[in-house]
Structure formats: C-alpha cells, structure tokens
C-alpha cells in the first residue's frame, strides 16, 4: 500500500518552512490554535486535489510557495506556485517530469502516482476518505441519513445498483410512455383503416377505368393513323390527276407504229450520208478535169485517164444511187412530215418510262384506295364507338377523383406499413420491458443477498433481519 511518507511546506500561509514525517497508519495533527494546523491540511489538499485556486495562500513577503510530498515508494510530487507560474513536478525513478497549463484539473500522471481521490457522492457533494478537517464531526454521523446512505452505498459499490435501478425505472417510464403513445397511434390508425374499407372496391373501379382509358388511347392512335392515310390518299389523288393529263397528251402517240418510225428514221439517215458522198465525188471529178487540162505529159494523162475511168465507174454507181435517191425523196418527204408531227420523239423513251412509273403508282394507288376504303370503314366504326363516349368531358373529373382515391390508397398502404412497424416496435418494447423486469428482479435479489451478508441498513446503519430486508425490498419494488 502506498502512503505519504513526509510533507515539506515552503512559504504556504503561516509556514515558512515545515517538514512532517507521517506514519503509514492514522496521523493526527494537534496543537494550540493559530499555529498552522489547518494550513497543513490546506497544503495537502492543494498538492493532492489542486484546491484552493489562486495564489492568495503564498506567504507574505515571499514570491513563491512549494509543497513536496514524498511517497512510500520513493516518488516525489512537488506542487509549486509563483505570481506567474503554476506547475507540478513528478520525480519518479530519478526522472523528473514537469506539468504546466493544466488549469483547474490535475495531471493524470500525478493522480496515478498518489492514487488519492475524492468520492463523488452526487453532483453537489463529494467525500474525502483520507483527510478530515478541523472541528469536523465523526465520520458521516453529522450528515443527514440520505447522505449516509449514498456515501455507504458509494463506498461498498451499492451506488451501481441504485444507478441501475434509476436507469431501469427511467427506461420503464419511457417505455410505458412510448407504449401509450404507440397504442393511441395504433387505435387511430385502426379507425382510419376502418373508415377506408371502400378502398378495395375503389381499386377494382380504378382498374376498370384504366382498361377503358387504354382502349380509348388505342382508338385515338388508330384515328391518327387513319388521318395520316387519308392525307396520303389525297396527295395520291392529286398525282393521279396530273398523270392523267400527261396520258391525254400522249394519246396521239398510240396511232403510230414505233418500229416503222424507227426504220424510216434509219433510212433517212443513210440517204443523207449517201447524198454527202455524191457531192464529194462530183467535186473530186471537177478537180481531176482541171488536172487533165493542165497536164501535157501523156503518161500522166494515161494515169489520170485510168483514174477517170474508175471515177466514171464510180459515177455510174453513184448515178444509180442517185436514182434510188430520187425514189427515196418521196419517202424522205413523208418522213419529214412524220418528223414534223413527232417533234417530241426524242423524249418518247422518257415518256414511256414515266408511263411505266405511272402504272406502278397507279397500281399502288389502287392498293391504297382499297386500304382507304377499309380505313373509312374503320373510321365509321370508330365514330360509332366514339359516340358512346359523348360524356368524355366528364372523364377528366372522374380521373381526378380516381387519382385522389389512388393517393388515399397509397396513404393507407403507408399507414399499414407504419402500423406493422409500430406493432413490431410494441412487441420489441414488450420484450425489453420483460427483460428489464427480469434484470430488476435479479438486481433486487442481489441487493437482498448483499443486505443479508452485511446485516446493516444502508440508510440508518442499524442491524436488519429478514423481515426488515423484505420490507426494504418491497419499498424499492413499489418505487
């Protein structure tokens, strides 16, 4: 066991320097009044508990004070104060530690060194078991019974049970209060649920109306498609009208044989080429005649004669061709008339292609016209069906009413979930309540066992028997 071996006091109140060697047992300081007995106790408290505060206890005409405690294990605790400095010094195993700036607290190392602490009785009172003041009465006898009970309970550890009982009672009160609130809420929720018994019927009504709305949306979509097809059909009718005009303009072409026309055109082109060749030959003959007239050389003349003979032969051939050309002139004139009447022959192929394209479109139009007739029949059916919804304007009010009911239904579902959560919480609180009752019963049994062991009333300090113990426990249970 560690105890204070000696105390040295320097410049503390009336003590300039004092040293006291203490016993490991009980130490009593006696002497005449005003000789510094109380100052020794104050010096001890100042060093052990950092009390009192301030620097007024420094001896007059001194600028510091110091208290040194030497413990039985060789540890020294030095408490020192000047006008500007406030410190603890701890000398342990030859090593010194200095503590400053601790304020109203005590350094933990100092507390662990001397191990002397006050016992906290309650928030307003504490008890020092190691020191007793001057003129202080016998231990606890001058204190009220409630303080005695608290102090003894604190000393022997019964305060733990008291605190546990207080906490349990507090928890029980909270649980009972919460349970009451939950029961009230549960009752209110049950009333709301009863008042909303029509929700299932409303749900079926909502599902039915949703089906009607979906059917209505499908009909509206079908109507939009029909309108689009109708617009397309109108556009096709316009195109058909334009193509018919083109066909009317091209009816004259049907009176001509296209193959004969192509053959005549080919013959005309050939005759044109032959006429050009004849003109070239005539020009060549004139040039050869000029050469013969200007030539005096016989050989050259013979050569030219030979060429002339050849040219004559060619001329004969060309003359025959010319005869044929005369025969063909009538045909050419006929072709010219045909050409005059068919100036648009160069675009006939394009027109034919357009006609083919028009025929394809015409077939497509016929198909779309058939679809149009089918759509018109569907529109007629749709109109007949839509007449069944003459009161569709009132549907928005019905939808709003349904949405309100849906919102209420969702709230009811939320209430149901809250109800289940509250019900579960009530079950948990009931289990906690039962567990607390079991713990209280265990604490009471432990308390009863402790009272039987010590046979002393914690309040008045008198001896107690079995009947008084039962009475004390009954009072605790009632509380």
Quick structural summary:
The chain is of the alpha+beta class and about 475 residues long.
Largest sheet: 6 strands, antiparallel
Q: Helical content, roughly?
A: 55-70%
The N- to C-terminal Cα distance equals 41 Å
Uncertain segments of ≥5 residues (pLDDT<50)? none
- How many extended strands? 8
What integer is the average pLDDT?
A: 74
Count of alpha/pi helices: 10
Strand arrangement within the widest β-sheet reads 2-1-3-4-5-6
Rg over CA atoms: 66 Å
* Class derived from helix and strand content: alpha+beta
SSE arrangement:
Elements: E1 4-12, E2 15-21, H1 37-49, E3 64-71, E4 76-82, E5 86-92, E6 95-100, H2 108-114, E7 119-120, E8 126-127, H3 145-156, H4 158-195, H5 199-249, H6 258-294, H7 298-341, H8 348-386, H9 395-454, H10 466-478
Antiparallel strand pairs: 1-2, 1-3, 3-4, 4-5, 5-6, 7-8
Domain YhaN AAA: 4-87
Family: Belongs to the SMC family. SbcC subfamily.
InterPro entries: P-loop_NTPase, YhaN_AAA
């Amino acid at each position: 066991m560690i105890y204070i071996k000696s105390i040295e006091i320097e410049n503390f109140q009336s003590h300039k320097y004092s040293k006291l060697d203490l016993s490991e047992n009980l130490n009593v300081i006696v002497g005449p009044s005003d000789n510094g007995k109380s100052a020794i106790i104050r010096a001890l408290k100042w060093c052990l508990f950092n009390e009192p505060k301030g620097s007024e206890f420094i001896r007059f005409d001194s600028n510091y004070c110091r208290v040194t405690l030497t413990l039985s294990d060789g540890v020294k605790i030095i408490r020192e104060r000047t006008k500007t400095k406030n410190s603890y010094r701890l000398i342990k195993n030859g090593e010194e530690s200095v503590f400053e700036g601790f304020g109203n607290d005590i350094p933990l190392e100092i507390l662990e060194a001397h191990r002397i602490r006050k016992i906290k009785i309650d928030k307003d009172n504490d008890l020092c078991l190691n020191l007793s003041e001057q003129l202080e009465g016998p231990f606890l006898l001058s204190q009220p019974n409630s303080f005695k009970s608290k102090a003894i309970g604190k000393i022997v550890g019964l305060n733990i049970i008291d605190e546990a009982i207080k906490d349990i009672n507090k928890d029980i009160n909270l649980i009972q209060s919460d349970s009451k609130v939950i029961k009230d809420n549960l009752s209110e929720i049950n009333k709301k649920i009863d008042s909303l018994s029509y929700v299932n019927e409303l749900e079926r009504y909502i599902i039915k109306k949703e089906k009607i709305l979906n059917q209505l949306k499908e009909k509206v979509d079908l109507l939009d498609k029909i309108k689009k097809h109708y617009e397309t059909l109108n556009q096709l009718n316009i195109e058909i009208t334009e193509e018919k005009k083109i066909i009317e303009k091209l009816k004259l072409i049907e009176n001509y044989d296209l193959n004969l026309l192509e053959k005549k055109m080919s013959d005309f082109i050939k005759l044109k080429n032959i006429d050009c060749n004849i003109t070239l030959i005539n020009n060549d003959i004139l040039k050869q005649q000029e050469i013969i007239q200007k030539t005096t050389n016989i050989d050259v003349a013979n050569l030219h004669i030979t060429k002339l003979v050849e040219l004559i032969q060619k001329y004969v051939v060309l003359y025959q061709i010319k005869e044929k050309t005369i025969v063909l002139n009538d045909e050419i004139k006929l072709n010219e008339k045909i050409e005059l009447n068919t100036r648009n022959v160069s675009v006939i192929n394009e027109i034919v292609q357009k006609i083919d394209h028009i025929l394809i479109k015409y077939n497509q139009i016929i198909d779309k016209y058939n679809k149009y007739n089918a759509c018109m029949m569907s529109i007629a059916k749709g109109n007949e069906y839509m007449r069944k919804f003459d009161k569709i304007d009132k549907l928005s009010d019905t939808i709003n009413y349904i949405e309100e009911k849906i919102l209420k239904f969702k709230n009811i579902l939320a209430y149901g979930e809250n109800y289940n959560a509250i019900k579960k919480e009530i079950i948990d609180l009931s289990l906690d309540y039962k567990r607390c009752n079991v713990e209280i019963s265990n604490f009471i049994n432990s308390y009863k066992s402790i009272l039987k062991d010590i046979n002393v009333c914690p309040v008045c300090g008198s001896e107690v028997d079995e009947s008084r113990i039962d009475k004390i426990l009954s009072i605790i249970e009632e509380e």
